[in-house]
Amino acid sequence: MKKRLTVGVITAECYRDYTTDMICGILAQSERAGCNVIVLAARNNFQEPVSPHVAHEADLFRLIGLPDFDGFIYDQNAFALDGIRKKLDALLKRTGKPVMLLDAREHPFFDNTVSHDPEDFAMLIEHMIQVHGHRKIYCLTGTKGTAQAEDRLEAYFHVMQRHGLYYDDSYFTYGDFWREAPVNYAQRLVSGALAMPEAVVCANDIMADALIAALARAGIRVPQDVAVTGFDGYLDDAQSDVTLTSFPKSCYQLGADAFRRLYSIITGRSCRRIPSRHSRIQIGHSCGCIPVQAPSAKSRREKRLLSRYKEWFYHSEVLFEMMHTESLHDLLFLLASRIYLICHWNELRIFLTNSYLQSVQPHSHLPAHKDCCEVLRTDRAGKNSGMEEHPLKQSDLIAYLTQDPGHPHAWFLSPLHMDEQQFGYAALSFGRLACCYPPEYCTLTGYLNLALEQLAEKTKLRAQSAGSMKDVENPHLYRQLVQIREEMQQHPESDWNVEALCQRTHVSRSYLQRMYKRYFGKSIFEELIGFRLQKAKELLAGTDHTLAQIAELCGYTSYAHFAKQFKAYEGITLSMYRERSRKAGGM
Predict the structure, then answer these.
(1) What is the three-state SS of 178-237?
(2) What is the CATH number of the domain that holds 202?
(3) How many structural domains is the chain composed of?
(4) Looking at the structure, do residues 321 and 345 belong to the same domain, yes or no?
């Protein structure tokens, strides 16, 4: 049978709505074309400041160089930093394979698929004229020179001309598709440098939201004083309380069109187009309308289902269960039994590096020429599950995932690592559904990273303990202290004190403290502080508890002392650590 084409998708934060839509369009079109898709998606967009852990997330993209890819779809806009974009450009160029960009600027080496939506933007202007009767309408378009900004501005000109409405150069302004230009634009309106219009149509939702927030701070009400519309239907972290009238941009169709163009470049043949998703104006308060669109019964069911799975996930205590496993087998078994909390998944595989397996299973022997190993394979139906060691070369990973010739495959590959320590990869499939994973999957892989690191540390400590038993001064006391140390690590919040430990071990205070430091390299209280702060970091990253609650759960009676000690040891505040860890985990 002829080898199926395999297309790589390079993106970040693919759980976001607009990225999800693009990927779903790619997957639906690839299914029709009978092609495999491998999505290489970082959990974050590398926005500054970039922590060491986040920086090593980019090691995933080394897989770009594997020979099994026939071409790539590259979502360059998903990455915030020029540095990471330049590295990805270089990696993709080095492959010599066709690369298709998504809604990007013109590139010297890669093709580009741009969404063409002036007719949709024109519908918003028509709405302001025909429904609300506005005549003096301004346009805040995007970055000058970009196809989207120029197309939407041209649509504005056509509609104004068709209705015989006056406009001049002061009626339209180039923006930035972001939040800085709208704030400056609002200042011009407030100061009187630009006459106040009846309405402003913005070229995307982010600019519209920033404009409304800036006007509100100056006491100008939307829509009572001026009406505002957005465009594209995708808005993260709204700054305004006013709901937007917008038009959902078809990122789904953009992804499908990008795949069709790439397929044509690779094969020289055309691919039958998938049906379009029809959109309509999304009514909000910002234009002066009263929203009346009710979600469909199907949409309500899906939201209830997703909400239920999310609730189950965050109330499952899966992080603490994973952190307390004592062997790789137990950890993988727990993961296989908890992955059901991620909605719609079909199959999960875990690949670990040879070096990591040696760290947690010192007596296992993998072939010297193999550097990766599949250790877990499980599916939703439970028909193809199991834990075993199946060695393979990392360079064969893509070929291995797509080896079944029966139907095309789509896999989401995520790196498993802690800072620069690479554990391997997680591969998630939704079967033949055009789906994308939710943020909870990113959280789960973050939990898995923590558990893998702790398991390696536990194995190392056990090996050290076993090796040092030959030379210990008091073997009986040593065994007692090992047990006490494990209990402290598992329950650092308990009321530990030296007097109670002296009574338990039947030795003097000075002898206990001296022998503990000799055996473990730290004093009892240094260890206890470390264990408490480790638990605090887990709770900060994995729960929504308040900082005061976390202090209590970690055994601190004074929140102020807890906060001061955390900053002294970790170098950052509790709030900063929580924000940084959640950005890295995609929460």
Answers:
(1) CCHHHHHHHHHHHHCCCCCCCEEEECCHHHHHHHHHHHHHCCCCCCCCCEEECCECCCCC
(2) 3.40.50.2300
(3) 4
(4) yes
Which of 160-174, 352-366, 545-559 has the least mean pLDDT?
352-366
Average the pLDDT over 81-85 and give the result: 90
Tokens of 354: 């040879």
Domain of residue 213 covers 118-249
Residues in a beta bridge with 227: 199
Does position 1 have pLDDT exceeding 50, yes or no? Answer: no
Q: What's the chain's average pLDDT?
A: 88
DSSP H or E run through 120: helix 118-126
Residues 80 and 131 in one domain: no
φ and ψ at 500, to 5 degrees? Answer: -65, -35
Average pLDDT of the segment spanning 34-62: 90
Sheet holding 6-12, edge to edge: 111-113, 99-102, 71-74, 6-12, 36-42, 410-418, 421-429, 347-353, 372-379, 386-392
Residue 301 has pLDDT above 90, yes or no: no
Structure tokens at 193: 């440098």
- In this structure, the answer to whether residues 326 and 396 fall within a common structural domain is yes
Residues 125 and 97 in one domain: no
Six token digits for residue 488: 């402290």
Distance from the first to the final alpha carbon of the chain: 43
